[in-house]
């Protein structure tokens, strides 16, 4: 509201600057000019508005207010376009007072009747008081903005630090796995050396046996030649005499027994290496997996502020303390979905598509839409109305794939989404592709409660008396966004505006 000057000062100011009434009509009127309400034949530009009469006057028709003592108490201000709105619709009197209890402008009759006993003030005093409060709010918001900008700057610096730190760790990890590979190569080399030693020993044994056999073969060939020569004697006497001599030096003609090492024990090496390899692989994988997951769990929890000292809400009034007002983000809405009622209502209009512009955040395959606002740190409660078999609602991470056709791109099919929905079998809750069905068919309104620090997502039936349907536990690493999936025509999901 414009500052109201004292009526006498206004009168003096006007009298000090008299104008020719004929020149007023000749002035070119602009769209932003306020017209005199008393000029009937030709419109004239208003010079002042009277908050008492609730009428605007040109210089000529303003004279009674300036010269007649009866109008000295009227309040004159610069011309106002909306002066009609400053009158009480019931009593047609100026809105001179402000009810601090009901937060509305009232006239004197309203103050003495409908607002009797309420704390009131003049509109000037109320504005001064409210402006003082707004200045404090502006300071708080400005401080909050600065703190938010600082936090964003810290996050950006932290992102750079994360990247550089991860690169440094990757170098160390590469070194350690290289070391592990070196150890594996050394173990492999040792096993190969043992096998090569076995091979050399077996080959030396075979070579010795072969040399012995070749020597025996030479000896046997020599004995055979002697026998052949002996048999060629024609004289019986000579044959017998030489045979007697040969018998005295008769060579061993028996073949020696030969042991051929088949190295059946090599299968033991295979078994040992296979068993040891399997044991080491299992040990390495389980060791890395357990120790790394332990670090991830402790690291995530250490970064979360602890508010676990607060008692869990129990009554509907307790839950309403954490009410959040959310709206669907049109840039995420699938082409078969339409948002209405200030982006709080989502409708499946299949087979009619909507010509939304391309956007990287828009869901292309699954008929889903995500809210603009996130749920992060602290406790959050919203209520949602579901209509039709195929209407689902839940929470998920912003990083969910918007373009994929796989089940992981739907809020029912991944391990970072928790949702509830209606089907022909009744109501089900979903997480990581696992459906939990419970008998319920008359549910139309769902209460969704998220306790971020404690890692819980709870679904309540609030169609009638509030009752818990299902509760999930998890470790949240990202802010959560309420997301709806409408799989069939005419499915509706509405975010309830709780007053």
Automatic annotation (TrEMBL):
Entries under CDD domains matching the protein: Bbox1_TRIM16 (cd19839), Bbox2_TRIM16-like (cd19769)
PROSITE patterns: B302_SPRY
Sequence ranges of Polar residues compositional bias: 1-11
Renumbered residue ranges of the record's region Disordered: 1-27
A GO molecular-function annotation: zinc ion binding
GO CC terms of this entry: cytoplasm
Annotated signal peptide: none
Key words of the record: Metal-binding, Zinc, Zinc-finger
InterPro entries: B30.2/SPRY, B30.2/SPRY_sf, Butyrophylin_SPRY, ConA-like_dom_sf, E3_ubiq-ligase_TRIM/RNF, PRY, SPRY_dom, TRIM8/14/16/25/29/45/65_CC
Domain B30.2/SPRY: start-end pairs: 306-499
SUPFAM superfamilies assigned to the protein according to its UniProt record, in alphabetical order: B-box zinc-binding domain, Concanavalin A-like lectins/glucanases
Secreted recorded as keyword: no
Gene3D superfamilies: 2.60.120.920, 4.10.830.40, Classic Zinc Finger
Record-given protein name: E3 ubiquitin-protein ligase TRIM16-like
Organism: Scomber scombrus (Atlantic mackerel)
Organism ancestry: Eukaryota, Metazoa, Chordata, Craniata, Vertebrata
